[in-house]
Amino acid sequence: MKRLLFILPVIAFAGLAAFLGFGLTQDPKELPSQLIDRPLPEFALPGIVQGGPGLASASFKGEPRLLNVWASWCAACPQEHPVLERIAAEGFPVYGIAWKDKPEDSRAFLARYGDPYSGMGSDFPGRTAIDLGVTGAPETFVVDKKGRVRFKQIGPISPEVWEGQIRPLMQKLRAEA
Q1: What is the rounded CA–CA span in Å between residue 57 and residue 70?
Q2: Which of 50, 83, 136, 142 has the fewest CB atoms in 10 Å of its CB?
Q3: Are 144 and 173 in contact (CB under 8 A)?
Q4: Do strands 94-99 and 149-154 pair parallel, antiparallel, or not at all (unpaired)?
Q5: Under a CB-based contact definition with an 8 Å cutoff, are residues 46 and 122 in contact?
């Protein structure tokens, strides 16, 4: 019995050390998305212009597209914007969701920085962003021809992320039959 009382704390300590040691091997910047290889959640958002076209999940079929969640109040969004314009100029469709942003603020942002988006929806209440698992702006999703999420970028897309990760994936998805 005395031996068991001695061994039990040693076993508990070893288990805790193994658990914490495993945690130290993981990348804390990497937040896996539950949506990877799953269909984009259903949504239908109004446009940022009164009576203008909005954005719906049903439009994410037929060709690979990027879905960028952004806001005019987002500090990193102006830094990311030139990369989004470059992506659109290279012929890759970029769609946007203005998250928790007043439509007039979204329009002012796009008037100031340019509009790389093929389509735009306003998610002022933030419900769609919750369904997408958005933790902050900007976040970008790569959606394949069938409407499935294939990649999630948390934070701004840098030229290095575009060149090294997202563009090769978009080209691969375009080439798929």
Answers
A1: 17
A2: 50
A3: yes
A4: unpaired
A5: yes
Per DSSP (E only), the strands in the chain are: 44-45, 55-56, 65-70, 94-99, 119-123, 139-143, 149-154
Compute mean pLDDT per 10 residues along the chain, 177 residues long, and list them: 72 73 61 80 94 92 96 97 97 97 97 96 96 96 97 96 97 89
- Beta-bridge partner residues of 65: 143
- Tell me how far apart the alpha carbons of residues 123 and 127 are, in angstroms, rounded to a whole number: 7
Q: Which of 49, 175, 45, 177 is nearest to 121 (CA)?
A: 45
- CA–CA separation, 164 and 148 (whole Å): 21
| Whether 150 contacts 173, CB under 8 Å | yes
Kindly report, residue by residue over 88-138, the tens digit of the pLDDT.
Answer: 999 999 999 999 999 999 999 999 999 999 999 999 999 999 999 999 999
Phi, psi of 123 (to 5 degrees): -110, 60
Radius of gyration of the chain (CA): 21
